[in-house]
Amino acid sequence: MVNPQAYLSEKLFSPDIEKVPTRNGYGEGLVLSGEKNKNVVVLCADLSESTRSEYFQKKFPERFIEVGVAEQNMASLASGMALAGKIPFISSYATFSPGRNNEQIRTTIAINNVNVKIGGAHAGISVGPDGATHQALEDMALMRVMPNMRVISPCDALEAKKATIAAAEIEGPVYLRFARAGTPLFTTEKTPFHFGKAEVFWIGNDVTIVASGPLAYEALLAVSLLEKEGVSAEVINNHTVKPLDKETILASLRKTKALVTVEEHQVAGGMGSSVLEMLAQNFQVPAEMVGIQDRFGESGTPEELLNEFKLSHPFIMEAVKKVLRRKKT
Amino acid sequence: MPTQKQYSIAQLEKKANEIRQDIITMLLEAKSGHSAGPLGMADIFTALYFKVLKHDPKNPEWEDRDRLILSNGHICPVRYAAMAHAGYFKKEELMTLRKFGSRLQGHPERARLPGMETTSGPLGSGLSQASGMAYAGKYLDKKDWRVFCLMSDGEQECGQTWEAAMFAAKNRLDNLVAIIDRNNIQIDGFTEDVMPLEDLKAKYEAFNWHVLEIDGHNMEEIIDACNQAKAIHQKPTLILAHTIPGKGVSFMENDFKWHGTPPGVSDMPGEPAKDEQAKIALKELRTLQGKISSEHE
What we know:
The complex is a heterodimer. Chain A is 39% helix and 19% strand. By secondary structure, chain A is an alpha/beta fold. In chain A, strands 3-2-4-5-7-6-12 form a seven-stranded mixed sheet, with helices on both faces. In chain A, α1 (22-36) packs parallel to α7, α3 runs parallel beside α5 and α8 packs across α12. The two termini of chain A are 27 Å apart. Chain B is an alpha/beta fold. In chain B, the strands form two sheets. A five-stranded parallel sheet of chain B has the order 1-2-3-7-6, with helices on both faces. The chains are: A alpha/beta, B alpha/beta. Chains A and B meet through α3 and α5 of A and α5 and α6 of B.
C-alpha cells in the first residue's frame, strides 16, 4: 500500500498525471535558491535553455555566467568563484559535466572541497533521439567514487526543485542528476525531502525495491500491479545516492529479505551497486538489479528505449518475481 | 591593512638567492620533486611575496588580500620557500616537503596549508580558477583585490588554458595578471620540440590580452610589469617572463633532465656525481657561480 506519510499525488496512477522533466525542477530550484542567497551564481556551457538554467538567467542576469562550450573551464571557474565565497551551480549535460570535465571536478572541486554544485542534465537513456553520445549512463559512478562529493538523483520535477534548494544549503560539492523527458509528477509539496534520507513510498513485506530517479515511478506502477497478484513489495525512493541512507534501507531489508534495485544508469558502479556494497558488509539478501547492462544507448523515443533496455515496469515486475524465487530456495 | 615592508632591489635579490638555497636543501631532503622550475621562478616569487602582493602572512584568509594561484603545482617548493621566508610558517617546516603528514604536499593542497589558495598539479586549470576569482572580485563583490596566476609554458599546450584566456578577455578581467614561466623546457624536452608554442605573445594578443615581455630574473622588470598591469583597463594582462630553468646552478640551467629530478638521487651522464650535486649547487648559489666568496667556503 502507498505510504500515507509520503504524501504522493492523488493522481498517482491516473492516466492524466502531469508529466514534467526533472530539469525543470532544477531551473525552479535555482531561482528559489538565488532568492534566498545572493551568493548563489549559475554558470552554463551554452545549454541554458535545455538545462533550464535560463530560468535563473532571466531572474538574475547579473549572477548568470555564460562560459561557452567549455565544460573544463566552467568547472575550474566555479572552483575559483567558490574560493571567493560564492555558491556556483555549473550546468550542462551530464555526459560533458561531470563527464568531459571529470579531472577538473576531481582536482579543483573535490580535492579542494569547495562549495560547487554540478547540475547534470540529460542523464539516462530517456534522453531519447539524441543517441548514445548524449545519454549519460555513467555519471553517478563517476561522481559517487569521488571523496567529498555528494550525489542526488531526484525522482520528479518537484523533488528536483527540493534537491536543488537543499544542495545550495549543503557546504561542499554536490552532484545533481536530471532527465530530459517529461516524467510523472507523482510527489507533492508535502512529500518529505531530506538530503541523505531515503523515503518509503510504498509499504510492503516480501521484497524491497530501492529506486532512484524517474524510474521510481515505474517501480510504483510495478508494485501496484504486483499487489493484485498477491505480492507485497516495498518501494524506497533513494534520491540521495551518496551518502547512502543505510538505516532506512537496512530496516526494510531486514523485514523483506529480498532486493531489487532500479536506476537509469549502468548497473556497474551506480546507485544499485552502492546499496549492494553496503549490504555485502552488513546484511546479505538475494538481489536483482534493473539498470543498463554494460551497453551504450541509442536513438529512439524514451518509451522505446525504456523497453529496449528493460527498465520499464514489466521488467521491474519480472525482477521482483525472479528475486522472490531466489529468496525461497 | 598590512603593508609590505620596503625592500631594496639588492635585498630582494639576496632573498631570492636564499630561497634558491632552500629549494636545493628541501629537494635533497625530500629525495623527489622538481628542480629546474622552482629555481627558475625564485625571483618572481620573491618579487610577489616581498613587494607586489597585498597579503598578510599572519592572516592568510584576510578577505582583501590579493590572490596568488599557482597553476603548475609541481614548482611548489619555490612557493613553500617564499611563504616560509614571508612568515607564513617556520622555515624548519620546509624540510618536511613531500613527507608523510606534511602540510607541504608534493603538489599543493589548499586545505592543508593556509595561504595556498587552491589545489593544483594537473596542468591547465589554474587560469580558469584565477579567472573565476577575478570575476567574483570584479563583478559579484566589486572588490579591488587582484588575482595573480602563475603558469608554466608547457601548460599552454592544454586546451583549457585557452578556454580561460577567452573567458578572461570576454569579461575584461583587468584585475587578473597571468605570468607565464617561459623557460622553454617541459618533461619530455624543449617545448618547441614537444609542441611548438610560439608566437605566444601574438597568440595572447589575438585573444585580446595585454602582453608584457620581461626578463624573469630582473627584479626591477618583474616589479615594473606588475605595476604596469594595474594601469591596464578592460583587459587582462599577461606577463611573459623569460626565465632560465635551473637558474643559479650551472649544471641544471637550461637542461630538461632537471625538470623533474631533485639533486642527490641519480648519477646522470655529464652531470656531477649524485653526492656532489647539492653541494655544488649550494656553493654556486652562495658564490653567485664563483663571482663572490662565501663565508661557508
